Amino acid sequence: MSFAVARMTKLKADNLVGIGNHDQRKTTNHSNEDIDVSRSHLNYDLVAGRTNNFKTDYIKVILNILLFHIKKQ
Fold first, then answer.
1. What is the largest distance, in Å, between two alpha-carbon atoms of the chain?
2. 29 in the Ramachandran plot: left (φ > 0), alpha (ψ -120 to 50) or beta?
3. What is the DSSP secondary structure assignment for residue 6, as one 8-state letter?
4. What is the mean pLDDT, run by run of 10 residues, along the chain of 73 residues?
5. Which InterPro entries match (predicted)?
6. Residues 6+ apart with CB under 8 A from 59
């Protein structure tokens, strides 16, 4: 059975680097002992074109939204 978890949290841009490292499992210390890092290569991203840096991706999305609204005016 498959399932998805969605979570909304208010963050500052500086926190995105740490959150990205946690999400991509770049650290060796995991709070969940059931994580099998040997299977991490099977993970896939639902959003195409993302980098491994959440802050860079976030800035790119915000700039695209701002450019869209500027062109619209």
1. 52
2. beta
3. -
4. 82 83 79 83 78 83 91 83
5. Mob_Pre (IPR001668)
6. 13
